[in-house]
């Protein structure tokens, strides 16, 4: 699911340099009341750490949490674009709660 309207890219290669932020939901079946965690992989504003994205989301699922991974645009801290994309991701998640089957209790 893209925060901006652009085409999908894969994690492995293109995603490190993508200019279009996206979120990937990892939702638990039949657990609408479970809390949701937004995973924002680190990388020191130079890259994104794959091992802090999908593996963390799957670990959270295993422990009873829905999760979404943000693939943000890598940019310098001065630009603050990554921070704004995190805020946009939270808004997008909140606007899709009902469509994804959440009760909105957490």
UniProtKB/TrEMBL annotation:
Any single GO BP term: xylan catabolic process
GO MF term list: hydrolase activity, acting on glycosyl bonds
Keyword set includes Hydrolase: yes
Keywords recorded for this protein, A-Z: Carbohydrate metabolism, Glycosidase, Hydrolase, Polysaccharide degradation, Xylan degradation
Protein name: Endo-1,4-beta-xylanase B
Biological source species: Gracilibacillus boraciitolerans JCM 21714
């Amino acid at each position: 699911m893209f925060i901006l309207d652009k085409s999908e890219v894969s994690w492995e290669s293109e995603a490190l340099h993508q200019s279009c932020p996206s979120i990937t939901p990892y939702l638990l079946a039949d657990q609408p009341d479970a809390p949701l965690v937004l995973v924002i992989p680190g990388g020191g504003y130079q890259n994104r750490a794959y091992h802090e994205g999908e593996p963390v989301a799957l670990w959270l699922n295993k422990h009873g949490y829905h999760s979404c991974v943000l693939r943000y645009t890598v940019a310098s801290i001065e630009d603050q674009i990554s921070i704004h994309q995190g805020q946009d991701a939270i808004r997008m998640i909140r606007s899709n709660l009902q469509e994804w089957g959440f009760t909105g209790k957490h």
